[in-house]
Amino acid sequence: MKKIVVLGAGMVGRAIAFDLSKKYDVTSVDVSEESLGKLLRFERVKPLKLDVSDKQQLKQLLLGFDVVVSAVPGFLGFETLRTIIECQKNFVDISFLPENALLLDEIAKSNGVCGMVDMGIAPGVPNLVAGYYYSRMKINSFEYMVGGLPKQRTFPFQYKAPFSPMDVIEEYTRPARHKVNGKILSLPAMSDPEYVDFEHIGTLEAFNTDGLRSLLYTLPNIPDMKEKTLRYPGHIALIKALIDSGFMSKKPIQVKGQNVVPFDFTTSILFDNWKLADDEAEFTVMKMIVKSEQKTVVIDVYDEYDSVTQLSSMARTTGYTATAGVELLLNGMFSKLGIYPPELVAQHDGCYEYIIKHLKDRGIQITTREN
User: Fold this and answer.
1) For the residues 239-262, what does the mean pLDDT come to?
2) Which of 26, 95, 305, 343 could make an S-S bridge to 21, C-beta 3.0–4.6 Å?
3) What is the H or E stretch that residue 370 is in?
4) CATH number of this structure's domain 125-304, picked from the four choices 3.30.1360.70, 1.10.540.10, 3.40.50.720, 3.30.360.10
5) pTM over 0.90
6) Cross-strand bridge partners of residue 250
């Protein structure tokens, strides 16, 4: 039986370990005993406490596994991938690292490693869609919008973070890169808001964020590309008010003789307000639109919290995309050496269809319309 190690036992890491443990020998690694404790309901997953930032310990661990899945926080992602590559292990990554993972391409090739990065729901599935159609028709524009939201709207923020709240704040503050008429433009985060109606959900607010990532460079012949995040109406007005008032500033201020960083103070409060309970009902919704001169393709994705496995929709949609990537590696459907974002994986024969079926088989709703 193939042996797989999942680095990170957070919400998404647990979903990955659970899914893979149905067929493989799976070990889940984390430094947090609390996170590891939540794996106990998955009897086939072996929990292991280890600090992945300890490079020597991590190298020693990885030697015993066939495939590695990295589900660590973004700030740990790049160096973790470097260590995995140095151990000559094939991998799938969903860490949303801020660095350009393609910088590791040459070292991966020289070490005989095949690595897939950004294999989640977003980035991930939109990349797969863009790459698949890019290899089949001349695309004039590609856009997508995505959001993970609680079913119960609790004021004032009407939001809970299904992944790291720090990464959410990064979305709200990092300039949004879009492509217009073949040129990459940097737009203010949370700009260009619009209301969009979704069946069974209602009206959501879409706004610019920096989610295109590798798509800006790997599919050069698409002249127009944009990505937006979805929230309940009113949420972004509150975030903008915090930013404009200085609550997100990283410059220390004096408060009763003490140096206080407003960003640290604010995020500490928001983390508590935004914490998604393990049994809290939520959903993930996404719409992707691919346009050519001849036709328009609209792909919708929807998923909800699974009360049986106690896995959130964001964990399911992100995690199961990653496990599809693992399956591609293990069954030999994708074995090219180097670092590959999803849009390049999707251009390889059969990979896109395999991943979409993999997600549908796990109850994730995906519909495709062409006109």
Assistant:
1) 93
2) 26
3) strand 365-370
4) 3.30.360.10
5) yes
6) none
